[in-house]
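User: Please fill in residues for this 252-position structure.
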């Protein structure tokens, strides 16, 4: 059934009297830094980076879900949250030099369409995502239960209700800045680009362009629409070796 796209950008505008009602550690205020300051996860790295694609099969993802449920077998755990928790653990613990007391923050996009009150119309065209975050000490990431890590990631998404989303939007009205964390997970996993029907047929493959940034990790479907998910990671050589070891050891 044809749908008339909604382009009403006022639906995501700041309130007429901006009100920042929550602390937003996931946002970096550029007014607090000189103009030459590093730009967090959006800063291209000048380091030598190795690129690697890690494949998780459906069996791997189900294994992570079972590990996250623990004794609570009836709990609902999403594939995205378990994959994000695994990536977070591997990325934080690959950091050199290791420091168990260091805090690590992971960022990930949350679709706010259904989280607003009232929700955005189904016909709303354009991005409606904000950055959720989760923070923990490296000691917790290394020695804590995987179920707890997944719970922390889940809590970050649940935090994104209507008032929290409006608070971030208002923060952006009052400050100049952008998301700030150790690593950002950007998911192309279920965007559905491969299902778009062009006059000449469906695309053979869709994936993001690789760029020279070590703090953005990308999730996307396997080539040919196979089972599971691909994770593309860019890290300095020594950190990549540590990430790879942690990643595959955790799946055993």
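Assistant: Residues filled in for all 252 positions:
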């Amino acid at each position: 059934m044809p749908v008339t796209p909604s382009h009403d950008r006022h639906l995501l505008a700041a309130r007429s009297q901006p009100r920042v009602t929550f602390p937003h550690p996931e946002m970096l205020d550029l007014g607090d830094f000189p103009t030459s300051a590093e730009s967090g996860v959006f800063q291209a790295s000048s380091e030598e980076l190795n690129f690697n694609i890690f494949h998780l099969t459906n069996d791997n993802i189900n294994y992570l879900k079972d590990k996250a449920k623990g004794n609570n077998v009836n709990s609902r755990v999403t594939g995205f949250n378990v994959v994000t928790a695994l990536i977070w653990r591997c990325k934080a613990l690959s950091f050199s030099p290791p420091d168990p007391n260091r805090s690590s923050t992971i960022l990930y996009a949350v679709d706010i369409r259904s989280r607003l009150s009232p929700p955005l119309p189904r016909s709303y065209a354009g991005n409606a995502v904000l950055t959720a975050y989760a923070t923990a000490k490296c000691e917790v990431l290394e020695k804590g239960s995987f179920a707890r890590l997944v719970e922390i990631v889940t809590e970050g998404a649940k935090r994104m209700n209507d008032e929290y989303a409006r608070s971030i939007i208002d923060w952006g009205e009052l400050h100049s800045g952008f998301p700030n964390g150790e690593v950002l997970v950007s998911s192309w996993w279920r965007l559905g680009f491969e299902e778009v029907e062009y006059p000449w047929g469906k695309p053979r493959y869709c994936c993001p362009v690789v760029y020279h940034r070590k703090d953005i990790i990308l999730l996307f479907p396997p080539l040919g629409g196979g089972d599971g998910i691909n994770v593309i990671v860019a890290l300095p050589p020594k950190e990549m070796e540590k990430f790879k070891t942690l990643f595959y050891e955790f799946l055993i």
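For context: The mean pLDDT is 89.
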